[in-house]
């Protein structure tokens, strides 16, 4: 089953959005496979966002991500990478539809509350980076009520 890496950024933690965000993924029917609150250092944040290192906003982005604790999660389910991105909404909250996490809870692109992997391959890389200890191995007894 497909997995994605979801991270509630420091602003989402500070603003008390952890429960709300977890609830949206849970209620959709996805399964929580990994969860931890941690503060990452600069080198780690630079590694996570390595693909964006040439961008003008890179340094500000790294400062933002290391500014406080984040909630790192692995969610599992059918098409969870693509659907997770839809639940999150467009990168710039000014363009995120209402009903999405960023559309409902964010205003500025540099304070957009949440990260989600953009492809199955990057999800695998990000899960390996953030959860080197591995994730939980369980399956929900609700599976037949969620999948046909
Ligand atoms: N970002 C920013 N300014 C920009 C573009 C992106 O501050 O012009 C930040 C924003 O927090 C975004 C993150 O960099 O979530 C990673 O950018 P990406 O293009 O990967 O967007 P995402 O995948 O998070 O939607
Ligand atoms: Mg991205």
UniProtKB/TrEMBL annotation:
<dbReference type="InterPro" id="IPR034907">
    <property type="entry name" value="NDK-like_dom"/>
</dbReference>
<feature type="binding site">
    <location>
        <position position="102"/>
    </location>
    <ligand>
        <name>ATP</name>
    </ligand>
</feature>
<feature type="binding site">
    <location>
        <position position="85"/>
    </location>
    <ligand>
        <name>ATP</name>
    </ligand>
</feature>
<dbReference type="InterPro" id="IPR023005">
    <property type="entry name" value="Nucleoside_diP_kinase_AS"/>
</dbReference>
<feature type="binding site">
    <location>
        <position position="112"/>
    </location>
    <ligand>
        <name>ATP</name>
    </ligand>
</feature>
<dbReference type="GO" id="GO:0006228">
    <property type="term" value="P:UTP biosynthetic process"/>
</dbReference>
<dbReference type="GO" id="GO:0006183">
    <property type="term" value="P:GTP biosynthetic process"/>
</dbReference>
<keyword id="KW-0418">Kinase</keyword>
<feature type="binding site">
    <location>
        <position position="9"/>
    </location>
    <ligand>
        <name>ATP</name>
    </ligand>
</feature>
<dbReference type="Pfam" id="PF00334">
    <property type="entry name" value="NDK"/>
</dbReference>
<protein>
    <recommendedName>
        <fullName>Nucleoside diphosphate kinase</fullName>
        <ecNumber>2.7.4.6</ecNumber>
    </recommendedName>
</protein>
<dbReference type="GO" id="GO:0004550">
    <property type="term" value="F:nucleoside diphosphate kinase activity"/>
</dbReference>
<keyword id="KW-0547">Nucleotide-binding</keyword>
<dbReference type="InterPro" id="IPR036850">
    <property type="entry name" value="NDK-like_dom_sf"/>
</dbReference>
<dbReference type="GO" id="GO:0042542">
    <property type="term" value="P:response to hydrogen peroxide"/>
</dbReference>
<dbReference type="InterPro" id="IPR001564">
    <property type="entry name" value="Nucleoside_diP_kinase"/>
</dbReference>
<feature type="domain" description="Nucleoside diphosphate kinase-like">
    <location>
        <begin position="1"/>
        <end position="137"/>
    </location>
</feature>
<comment type="similarity">
    <text>Belongs to the NDK family.</text>
</comment>
<keyword id="KW-0808">Transferase</keyword>
<feature type="binding site">
    <location>
        <position position="91"/>
    </location>
    <ligand>
        <name>ATP</name>
    </ligand>
</feature>
<feature type="binding site">
    <location>
        <position position="57"/>
    </location>
    <ligand>
        <name>ATP</name>
    </ligand>
</feature>
<keyword id="KW-0067">ATP-binding</keyword>
<feature type="active site" description="Pros-phosphohistidine intermediate">
    <location>
        <position position="115"/>
    </location>
</feature>
<dbReference type="GO" id="GO:0005524">
    <property type="term" value="F:ATP binding"/>
</dbReference>
<comment type="function">
    <text>Major role in the synthesis of nucleoside triphosphates other than ATP. The ATP gamma phosphate is transferred to the NDP beta phosphate via a ping-pong mechanism, using a phosphorylated active-site intermediate.</text>
</comment>
<dbReference type="GO" id="GO:0006241">
    <property type="term" value="P:CTP biosynthetic process"/>
</dbReference>
